Amino acid sequence: MVTNDQRRRQLAREKFERQQQRREAARRKARRRNAVVAAGLAAVLAAGAGAYAAGAFSGDGKKNVSADASPDAVPTPKKGPDPCAKPAPGSPSAKTWKSEPEMTVDKSASYAMDLKTTCGTIDVKLDAANTPHTVNSFDFLAKEGFFDHSKCHRLTTAGIYVLQCGDPKGTGMGGPGYTIEDENLKDSRLKGNVYPAGTIAMANTGQPHTGGSQFFLVYQDSQLPPQYTPFGTIGAEGMKTLKKIADAGEVSGAGDGAPNATVVIDKATVTKS
């Protein structure tokens, strides 16, 4: 005969088991959702592909939304306060080149890049020893004023945590007209397919050796396949600037869109020491 105390314990055990099952189901659902988000957001690093997680850009840089999409399927744009200053006078570059610039970088030297933005300075130590083609290209483009007055057009705040810049068109579809080879994809810092906070890396089309001028700045550890050339490390001042930008959020509210902050590179310089 089952006593009342035994019955209470049995009911408590069954309730606990039901709770565990519900929690495990919720965890599985969350893992699937996060995997989908991360996979979708990885595509935002495809320079020239122009894909948002929620749609794709047409040739004029506008996002296409399916005609039969319900109103609830389209995120409501959100606009927070802009923490950044007004851009310096000037227009983005329209220059392009037919081929990669001649190699002049000194692999034994130290190179640094300063991005003077409307939100603050982003200081970067460049890795010429392991990414000579990438550093050589950035040195050339900076001297040509290619990055000056260009917007950082994309901020991701879910799944991966990056600010994407380097397109004078501001659409995610622009570039210098040439591509450079992938480098340093076996960097020991990319453990477990994680690009650690403080990394600067090249965007590409998703195919090998398709990097151009677009790059992304990692402000929080982000899990990504090792397909994007890591070519430098962001300094302390730069990380503070990125935090300000990230804290302001992005316009879609869905975790991937244009930054609420008006992030414009007023001046980019590369120096050798």
Short description:
The chain has helices at residues 4-42, 132-143, 236-247, and strands at residues 51-52, 55-57, 63-64, 111-117, 120-126, 150-151, 154-156, 162-165, 194-195, 199-202, 215-218, 222-223, 230-234, 256-257, 264-272. It is an alpha+beta fold and 273 residues long. The protein has one domain: Cyclophilin-like (Cyclophilin, Beta Barrel), CATH 2.40.100.
What's the architecture, going by CATH?
Answer: Beta Barrel
CATH H-tier superfamily: Cyclophilin-like
Number of strands: 15
Radius of gyration: 22 Å
How big a fraction of the residues is strand? 15-25%
Please estimate the helix content. Answer: 10-25%
What is the CATH C-level name? Mainly Beta
Number of helices: 3
How widely separated are the two ends? Answer: 86 Å
User: What's the helix-strand series?
Assistant: HEEEEEHEEEEEEEEHEE
Number of domains: 1
Principal-axis shape equals elongated
Mean pLDDT, rounded to whole units? 83
Q: Which structural class fits the helix and strand makeup?
A: alpha+beta
Strand arrangement, largest sheet?
A: 6-15-4-5-13-10-11-8-7-14
**CATH topology group:** Cyclophilin
User: pLDDT under 50 segments (min length 5)?
Assistant: 47-75
